[in-house]
Amino acid sequence: MVKRTLDLQPLDATFGAVVRDLDVRALDDETFDQLHAAWIDHALLIFPGQHLSQLEQDEFARRFGDLEFTAAAISNIGKSGRVHHDQASDLVKSLRGNEGWHHDSTYMPVQAKGAVVSAEIIPASGAPTGFADMTAAYEALDEDTKSMIQGLSAYHSLYYSQGRAGYLPTANADGGYDMYGYHDEEPSLRPLVKIHPVTGRPNLCIGRHAYGIPGMDPEASEALLDSLNEQACQPPRIYHHHWVEGDAVLWDNRRLMHQGYPFDMTQPRRIWHTRIAGDPTTELAANHASS
Questions:
Q1: What CATH topology corresponds to 7-278?
Q2: Which pTM was predicted?
Q3: Which of 213, 223, 230, 218 shows the shortest CA–CA distance to 151?
Q4: Cα–Cα distance between 110 and 115 in angstroms, integer?
Q5: What is the pLDDT of residue 49?
Q6: Is 14 exposed, middle or buried (0-12, 13-18, 19+ CB in 10 A)?
Q7: 10 Å Cβ neighbour count for 22?
Q8: Distance in angstroms (rounded) separating the CA atoms of residues 225 and 208
Q9: Block mean pLDDT (10 aa), the chain, length 291
Q10: How far apart are CA 25 and CA 13, in angstroms?
């Protein structure tokens, strides 16, 4: 039997590859092992023309670990089918907030390992998703900055990031928010420099959810984090994927940040996001006890 070799086309960036001629619904163990190794190596894998159902997407994502949640629509299309574009809409607020660079679920006790996302409806105006390589971003820092941030941590909160951007959703009768991520636990404390549990390489853990470095003046903390984010998310460490309906992507959330990109919200857009749960032994926030 001839061993299959993956057809990988690297992106013009420090990370990422397009995987050609592969149906992710039909992976034997040997091909999956190659794919997993490619994921660790490239951090972002793009699979054109998959046209996955939500169930198929979830089954593919489960090959990489337990799920934090199954396929959920990231969309400006409401439950009634109406396209939301009013800035006061909670759907629009969530999408606009996601335009800031971030890792998924750093605001939860356990940071996500990764995600599988696929495109169902893409507007003619385009609606790309950006990715940024935080391993390469750390390596690009000067030695003084590396030394300064080593040992520092920051809190991560969806309340903070959405509030700072002006996109907090509508409060419920109890004054809280009935949306994922607005939990009542203590904000998660995470190191600015984190070692990837598989590669052993250091990478930045920053993004829009990060704030309040302990022992630092709040304004100085915000300025430092803003500066790190600005420096990190520059070429050749970034790539924006321009979706074609049927595309699927898999990314390593421990290494990459990502962002939504502004689009004409009078046009419908729907992508499906399945989030792969992180391993508590490596992704648990420093101030949350393991259950």
A1: Double-stranded beta-helix (3.60.130)
A2: 0.96
A3: 213
A4: 14
A5: 97
A6: buried
A7: 20
A8: 9
A9: 78 98 95 98 98 98 98 94 92 94 98 98 92 98 98 98 96 89 96 98 98 97 98 98 97 98 94 98 91 51
A10: 28
What local confidence, expressed as pLDDT, does residue 5 receive? Answer: 84
Report the pLDDT value the prediction gives residue 1, as an integer from 0 to 100. Answer: 41
Residues in the chain: 291
With a CB cutoff of 8 Å and minimum separation 6, the contacts of 268 are: 75, 76, 77, 83, 121, 123
What are the CA-CA distances from residue 222 to residues 17, 122, 146, 210, 230 (Å)?
33, 35, 17, 9, 12
Q: What is the pLDDT of residue 289?
A: 79
Burial of 3 by CB count in 10 Å (0-12 exposed, 13-18 middle, 19+ buried)? exposed
Give the residue extent of every domain in the chain: 7-278
Three-state SS for 32?
helix
The confidence score (pLDDT) of residue 82 equals 94
List C-alpha distances in Å: 47 to 1, 8, 42. 25, 10, 13
Q: Residue 48 in contact with residue 246, Cβ under 8 Å?
A: yes
pLDDT of residue 2: 45
Instruction: Kindly state the tokens that stand for 205.
Output: 């853990």
List the structure tokens of 225: 């984090």
Kindly state the tokens that stand for 11.
Answer: 């992106």
275, 262, 141, 138 alpha-carbon torsion, rounded to 10°: 10
